[in-house]
Amino acid sequence: MICFLVPRRLSWIEILVTTLFGLYFEALVNVYLDLKYDLYGVFNKGVDWAGLIPHFGMYPALSYLVLNFYPRDKNITRIIVYLLAWTIFSVAYECISRATDVLYYNGWRWWYSAIVYPLIFLILWYNLKFTRWVIKKSLSAD
Question: How far, in Å, CA of 87 to CA of 119, rounded?
Answer without folding.
Answer: 10
